[in-house]
UniProtKB/TrEMBL annotation:
Name of the protein this chain belongs to: 2-polyprenyl-6-methoxyphenol hydroxylase
InterPro entries to which the protein is assigned, alphabetical: FAD-bd, FAD-dep_Monooxygenase_BioMet, FAD/NAD-bd_sf
Domain FAD-binding: 4-328
Record region (Disordered): 321-340
Keywords (A to Z) from UniProt: Monooxygenase, Oxidoreductase
Top-level lineage group: Bacteria
Length: 384
């Protein structure tokens, strides 16, 4: 008999979870509360660890077809245009940059038809020793397992982890945009109090993000394009050009939050995944990648273990230390790269670092996050 799961949330993490379950022979119903399926946001990059996970999901080739190599982590600049470190493509690991919607579509296309239900908001979850039930409007769905991939403001986390603190504002805000400018090299410009990131993405476009400090969440401006252009008006090209070339409707303004560490990602037959479990700041480029890793590790545990409880215990044991350490590191990096007081010391340290040592640190196996190897997804063990 085919084993059944419910995945709450149809973003990148939820679709990756459903695809991983499909790879091990399970069937999944994905519940997405939005009336239409799609991925909000602008761009992102995926590092070697996430690309290995996409290989286990069977979609690395498709992902590479819609991604663009970027050396942003190797090209560090100052606002006046000078380089602190410069990538050499021959010996620097390229990340793969995407429009979020393009990677989302790759995952969606790999799922069986009919697995995703839109306009399906989950309002309750309850369970017993043998199954878990989800209330969705007037409908109740029952399965052996629920995977909650419903984001940083997860309904499932609120229902089953009522004592968990809400998302925490990190004192930073960001403007994101997509411009129709082709063939820009990836780069990161470090200024006092903020940074500007550029990634080339598919179809002759560029993704950019300006991250800076904010005294409180919710501060908004009448014209985001004017505001962000003013903040980086004296920074080197193509930064002003990128903002000018971005239509107003393609500029997104977000406040940056993360989650305090949870004591467990598992509640009975319910597992939190992705931002619902460990939302993190974007400063290590690992948010979506850690969600994809979660999906592969969860499916591998389900395939190897007879009992759901044993599989979820293994998932929690493997994923919590890694994802929470990554979130802590991202939080620390974010404070450092947006600190006015630390800016001069950080710039001096980067400038004095020998280029070969810098490139070694951003090689495919140069840091523990990127060195991660996924488990192999295989056919599941028979149910207990």
């Amino acid at each position: 008999m085919t084993r059944q799961a419910i995945v709450v949330g149809g973003g990148i993490g939820g679709l990756a979870a459903a695809l991983a379950l499909h790879r091990i022979g399970w069937q999944a119903t994905v519940l997405e509360r939005a009336p239409e399926l799609g991925e909000i946001g602008a761009g992102m990059s995926q590092s070697p660890n996430a690309l290995r996970a996409l290989t286990e999901l069977g979609v690395e080739e498709q992902a590479r077809s819609v991604g663009v190599p970027t050396h942003a982590s190797g090209n560090l600049r100052l606002p006046d245009g000078r380089y602190l470190q410069r990538a050499r493509p021959a010996d620097t690991t390229a990340l793969l940059a995407f429009h979020r919607a393009d990677l989302h579509q790759v995952l969606l296309d790999a799922l069986p038809t009919g697995w995703v239900r839109t306009d399906a908001e989950v309002t309750a979850v309850w369970q017993d020793d043998s199954s878990v039930t989800v209330a969705c409007g007037d409908t109740e769905l029952n399965a052996e397992l629920v995977v909650a991939a419903d984001g940083i403001r997860s309904t499932v986390r609120r229902l089953l982890w009522p004592d968990a603190p809400p998302p925490r504002f990190l004192g930073r805000t960001a403007w994101l945009g997509i411009a129709e400018i082709a063939d820009l090299p990836g780069s990161m410009t470090l200024g006092p109090g903020g940074y500007f990131l550029i990634h080339p993405i598919a179809r002759g476009r560029a993704y950019w993000a300006h991250v800076t400090t904010a005294d409180e969440p919710g501060l908004r401006y009448d014209h985001d394009k004017v505001e962000v252009a003013h903040r980086v008006a004296t920074w080197h090209e193509p930064i002003p050009q990128l903002i000018d070339a971005t239509p107003d409707e393609r500029i997104i303004h977000i406040d940056i939050h993360d989650l305090d560490p949870l004591p467990t990602y598992v509640h009975g037959r319910v597992a939190l995944l992705g931002d619902a479990a460990h939302a993190m700041s974007p400063d290590r480029g690992q948010g979506a990648g850690q969600s994809i890793e979660d999906a592969v590790v969860l499916a591998a545990a389900l395939a190897d273990e007879n009992a759901i409880e044993a599989a979820l215990f293994r998932y929690d044991t493997e994923r919590r230390p890694r994802t929470q350490a990554t979130a802590r590191g991202a939080r620390t990096d974010g404070r450092r790269t947006t600190s006015r007081t630390a800016h001069r010391a950080m710039v001096t340290m980067i400038r004095l670092m020998p280029a070969p040592l810098w490139r070694k640190g951003i090689a495919a196996n140069g840091n523990p996050t990127w060195r991660w190897q996924p488990p192999h997804l295989r056919s599941p063990a028979p149910p207990h």
